[in-house]
Every structure is written in structure tokens, then in C-alpha cells.
Specification:
Tetracycline Repressor, domain 2; single chain; mainly alpha; 9 helices
Length: about 200
Amino acid sequence: MTSENVTPIDARPARTRDPARKQRILDAAADLMARYGFSSVSMEDIGGAVGITASAIYRHYDSKIAVLTAMFNRVIDQLLSEGQRFAGHPDAEPLDALRQLVDGQIAFVVDDRDIAQVYYREIANLPEADRRRLRRKQRLYLEDWVHLLTELRPGLDDAVARTIVHCAIGAIQSTLQHSAGLPEDRLRDLLRRSALAVLATDPD
């Protein structure tokens, strides 16, 4: 090849990255892992679902564990951000803010069911250091629930309030273990009423 046939580097089109690719990788991984389990899904499977090679995934995530960690961090960061926004708003009524937290958890379980199922089932596959960081974020998220609940029910001591919050979230997440077979609007309403009944804040 002569020098006349070589395209100067400066004249070559710049490689562009697809900003949505990382999210498509996480979405595909969540779908596959929800159906088949973390250990049964390979990077090749994830790449095939996205329409890219496994080597292309490694440009974003250096391992399948890194994909799982990124998936979980995105979930808890979003829930934590929403919780802090609702609970920390200076004009928020505690009951309204707590209901928004309930609705946010329902949206996670219903709208992002694949990710929620993987989050619920596969957390033990994270390395210990990542698991500890995730648990710290979970505790911060729960603090917003506990803070609002004790404002509404000041007679509760801290241990009881935390137990009630765990029960309320567990009631919402219970639908991850089976297919309810209900229309989505009815399912959301049932989950909302169940969680508020556990929290003992439902006026009905």
C-alpha cells in the first residue's frame, strides 16, 4: 500500500459512541438474568440480545459482575434520589411524601420487574465490598421511610418503625415471586393499599 492510499488520521471520521448502549446492555442483562439466572447468562448472550459482540460490552463493563453491579447501583441510586427528594422537601406533608415513596417502590416492582427480580434474587453474587456499599445505600433509603413514618406515628420506637417499613416494602415486593394475573392499574392499587395498611396510614 502506498502512502497516497492511506487516509490521514485527521481526515478519518471520528468514532462515535452510542450514549444509550450502556443502558441497553443493562436492560438486556436484566431480562436474561430474570429469566435464566445470573450464572446461566454469558456476556455473549447479553451481547446477542443487544445486537453487539461480547467484546463490545467490555468497552463499558469489564465483567459480568460489573454489569450486575452497575445494574444494582442504578436501581438503588434512583430510589435513594427519589426518597431524599420526597422526604426532604421542606413543604412536603409526611403522609403525601410517604405515599410517594410507596408509589416509587411500586413503580420499581411493576415497571422494572426484570431488574427488580434480579435485584431481589442475585444480590449474593456481588463481591463483598460492592454488597456492603449497596447495603449502605439501602439503609439510607429506608431511613427516609422511617423518618416519615415516625412523624406520622410518633409513638413508635425506632426498632418497631423499621420493622414496619420492611414489612411494607416486603408486601410490595411479594409480587415478584408470582404472576398476579391482575390488570396493571388494579395491581398497583392493591399493592398501594396493602403497603399503606401495613404502615397504618391508610384513612380507609
